[in-house]
Amino acid sequence: MKRDLLTILDLDKAEILNLLRRALELKEGHRQGHNHMPLLGKTLAMIFDKPSTRTRVSFEAGMAQLGGSTIYLSRTDTQLSRQEPIADTARVLSRYVDGVVIRTYEQQMVEEMSRHSSIPVINGLTDTHHPCQVLSDLLTIQERFGRVTDLKVAWLGDGNNMANSWITAALRLDFALYLACPRGYEPDAALLAQAHGRGRAVYLSDDPDRAVQDAEVINTDVWASMGQESEAQERRQQFARFQVNAERLQQAKPEAIVLHCLPAHRGEEITDAVLDGPQSAAWDQAENRLHLQKALLEWLMG
Ligand code: CP
Ligand code: NVA
């Protein structure tokens, strides 16, 4: 049976840990220049409704390294732009290619694609989830700390797709997640309720200092996500208190790392000094998109 990655909840704990382990093996193999082409002759279609640097390039490079190929489809270049239903697009793509990545607005669209596809569907970001990113972030944490459990992870800023994905990760793994979001910008209420209902260590407040206190991982993201550009001015005011800066970083554990999925708005959610500083893991984190997604593609399409 085909498997999808629409949210991290599509994976169980063992599958997540396996992906991290395999990604580290692939990363090491890549460093040593090994050729590993389990996807020779396979094709990945990539439908993008929103811009991308990391997701697009890491999937394209990853497929090439695994011996496969990709077809990049911006929505405007497909019949989706002329109202061909997503279900029909899914049925047709399933006859041509071996997997599909979608980046779009509504989570419902990736679910619809999954329902009507006989091939694996991977969520490359929606308004509510970004599972490939958080798996890559977990890989970065595993590399730096040798574990993804027994850690305090802080999230500062918007209760967006990344914050939601962190909650889903906390539903599967044993780390403590402290979210600090301005009132009115909280993450998905149903996901929070699920985490609380299952007794997970997920805490939400509007107090960024409490969130970062003694944390091992400090995480942030843009204050206005793709599609929210018109709110950027208002959000800059609401979020000013939630900036990740050098002073705040001092409240965390001395060995703390800072994560940012990028692109960053330097001087807003994070300062230059922190993003470019010794505790920033953002560049390894970006690199890890490649290795994590190769492990994912190998598993789903191999
Ligand atoms: N982090 C991330 O998904 O980056 P892109 O928008 O560049 O793909
Ligand atoms: N929250 C951001 C993440 C970008 C990778 C956005 O959706 O624009």
Notable characteristics:
single chain; 302 residues; alpha/beta; Rossmann fold; 2 domains; 5-stranded parallel beta sheet; 12 helices; 9 strands; 42% helix; 14% strand; globular; binds phosphoric acid mono(formamide)ester; binds norvaline
Explain what you see.
42% of the residues lie in helices and 14% in strands. It is of the alpha/beta class. The protein has two domains: 8-130 and 288-301, Aspartate/ornithine carbamoyltransferase (Rossmann fold, 3-Layer(aba) Sandwich), CATH 3.40.50; 133-285, Aspartate/ornithine carbamoyltransferase (Rossmann fold). Helix 1 crosses helix 12. The protein is globular, with a radius of gyration of 19 Å. The two termini are 13 Å apart. The model has no long low-confidence stretch (mean pLDDT 98). It binds phosphoric acid mono(formamide)ester (CP) and norvaline (NVA). Norvaline is lined by residues 125, 160-162, 221-222, 225-226, 261.
How many helices? The count is 12
Fill in the CATH topology of the largest domain. Answer: Rossmann fold
Query: From the helix content, strand content and strand pairing, which structural class follows?
Result: alpha/beta
Q: Overall 3D geometry? A: globular
Question: Helicity level, as a percent range?
Answer: 40-55%
The total number of structural domains is: 2
Number of strands: 9
Strand count, sense and barrel status of the largest sheet are:
5 strands, parallel
**Could you say which small molecules are bound to this protein?**
phosphoric acid mono(formamide)ester, norvaline
Q: For this structure, what is the CATH class of the largest domain?
A: Alpha Beta
